[in-house]
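[job 0417] fold request received: Tryptophan synthase alpha chain
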Amino acid sequence: MSKIKDAFTKGKAFIPFISAGDHGIENTERYIRVMVKAGADMVEIGIPFSDPTAEGPVIQEASTRALSTGVKIHDIFDMVRRLRSGDDAVTVPLVFMTYLNPIYVFGREKFFTLCEEVGISGVIVPDMPFEEKGELGTIAHKHGVEVVSLIAPTSENRIEMIAKEAEGFVYCVSSLGVTGMRSEIKTDIKSIVETIRKYTDIPVAVGFGISKPEQAEAMARVSDGAIVGSAIVKIIAEHGENADQALFDYVQSMKQAVLKAGA
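[job 0417] inference complete; emitting structure tokens
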């Protein structure tokens, strides 16, 4: 299966996020296929959690909807297994966005063993302090899974330390606060990315707050790609089981925007 770096081999990457189980796991599976067909280079799959501290209202509500369907982590692994098999197998990198609690409750060894089995390339854990990365990293690496580091606008004095040990890609957080769509992004992303690149040559993708093609293009112009979560989740909230065309059109427009940034 693809490694995270493969998402960045064809130019600037577009990376959508989806909450697993929102409006049912079968719809999540179908929507991931739709987004990949529309041009997604990698997909972040959110494991729903009752206390998602990094998430704004849109993704919190998606987590609540997903949990209300009774979706369990095993169901999400089964979904990924299906995505990775058959004639129409999804081959782009898939990464989990989750929190420490679900991994520890499920069991770290069991979690990463299954990640390896089904072809999960990496994990993003927003509530894991950099200093504690080793606790997950040792087990994750044993199973070929990369632990993605986040660098926020407040990370100034820690960028060197985090970037030097980063793997997969660096998730550059564009704005302070929780996830969510923002009318404008005022952070000086260019200078943060330039600082990161002094210490690592792995790709840097920007997320938090991006919802419009012009924002995706602007962020991809100064980095290696754009990550979008809340805007995707909002489309699914609005269309429920019938979001296929709206998702396809949106992802295609965002992919074209990041490609324009690299032209």
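[job 0417] notes: Confidence is low (pLDDT under 50) at residues 177-183. The chain has one domain: 12-148+204-262.
[job 0417] exit 0
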